[in-house]
Amino acid sequence: MYRYETKGSLPRRALQLAKRQSSIAMALATASAAPFRVGQTEVFIPNIRIAFIRGRSPHEARFQVPLWFSKLDLRDYLWHAYQVEILGVRSYVKQSRVQAGKPGDIRPAVRRWHRPKAKKFMTVSLVHPFVWPERPEDHKEWNRKEVQAGDIETRKWQESMGSMSDAMVNEERRERMKEQAKALLEGKVKWKARDESLRFNTSFARGQ
Q: pTM for the full model?
């Protein structure tokens, strides 16, 4: 005997079949309503990543797509996913600058060069204009100040642990030493040793 998990009066497999048939019917209706000939390749679990880049013109939309992505792929994707009709597509591949070392190296090797992976961009002409919403002025909901402060601290820590940490100058310590030296020269404060050993070493250095 086979055991099915039921929901109401229909078994689970029947529900899955009904959902699949309804999705196929919706896809066929969308394809038949398209003003152009769509592709026949069915994609059920897409693993592509398409980035919508903010632009200035409301009549154009710019995307960053995979290198293997074609103009027809983007046209079908926009139609099936968002019911967006376009008039044309322009694409270009932006080459990355040559960098030293290999990808992922912490310290780039000398006289070894590589070119990072190129990036592909596509710009489509929209039938109906699209206006981006205004940028939010209040960023309290996203904790922007805390995130920026954390990024600054992380960057400082990475620089202090890097190969050039010995050449770094602590500006705060420099200012404190400058103020202390100025106060000593003006006679506002008197220098005192921290402990007896330091006082002895200072006296010995002065020849007393």
A: 0.54
